[in-house]
Amino acid sequence: MTVRDIRLYGDPVLRTVAAEVTDFGEFSHTLAQDLLDTLDRPGRAGVAAPQIGISARAFSYGVDGQRGVVFNPELVETTGDQAGDEGCLSVPGLWFFTRRSAYAAVEGMNADGEPVRVEGEGELARCLQHEVDHLNGIVYIQRLEADIRRGAMKQIRRSAWFGD
User: Fold this and answer.
1) What is the rounded CA–CA span in Å between residue 38 and residue 52?
2) Considering the domain boundaries, does residue 7 fall inside one?
3) 14 with 7: CB under 8 angstroms?
4) Residues 136/129, Cβ–Cβ less than 8 Å
5) Given 19, 53, 93, 130, which is the most exposed site by the fewest CB atoms within 10 A?
């Protein structure tokens, strides 16, 4: 069991587009297990590989009884709207009003390189969009409306963890 440290906002790996995974063997299985082990802490809905310092297109999710890992995910469908507070392990202790699609579907591969599709509404939809953003070098702070983003950045800069 390997629970990896979470990289915090400001770390360059979080702002870099992650590399496609092409090695579906020992690497993908080890990464999948690390992502699931790191996810298995109270209050966690998803963990993207860049959040544990690995520039690879993979994330784990655990919402509404659904749990797994997706490699090379593509957001293939979104519909509807939802808005509410959203948080991020890389921005600890802070939650901000964020708009997302109410339904989302991703397609990618499992650790064996076999096709998978994960879809859902509400919190799962939010999670899928949030984690795919991480793989594209986007931290949810970038998705906030301008006035909320300004306030968020002030709070982040004042946080004890910022600049570590």
Assistant:
1) 9
2) no
3) yes
4) no
5) 93
What dihedral do alpha carbons 152, 155, 159, 164 form, nearest 10°? 50
pLDDT of the residue at 164: 59
Q: Is 127 annotated as a binding residue?
A: no
Would you say 130 is a known binding-site residue?
Answer: yes
Local structure of residue 31 (DSSP, 8 states): H
Q: Assign residue 130 the CATH number of its domain.
A: 3.90.45.10
Contact, 124 vs 80, CB < 8 A?
Answer: no
64 and 120 in contact (C-beta within 8 Å)?
yes
Active site residues: 131
Structural domain includes residue 164: no
What pLDDT digit, counting tens, does each position of 53-108 carry? 999 999 999 998 999 999 999 999 999 999 999 999 999 999 999 999 999 999 99
Side chain identity, residue 117: R
Q: Residue-wise over 35-62: b if at least 16 C-beta within 10 A, else e? A: bbbbbeeeebbbbbbbbbebebbbbbbb
Round the average pLDDT of the chain to a whole number and report it.
Answer: 96
Number of domains making up the chain: 1
Q: Is residue 6 part of a domain?
A: no
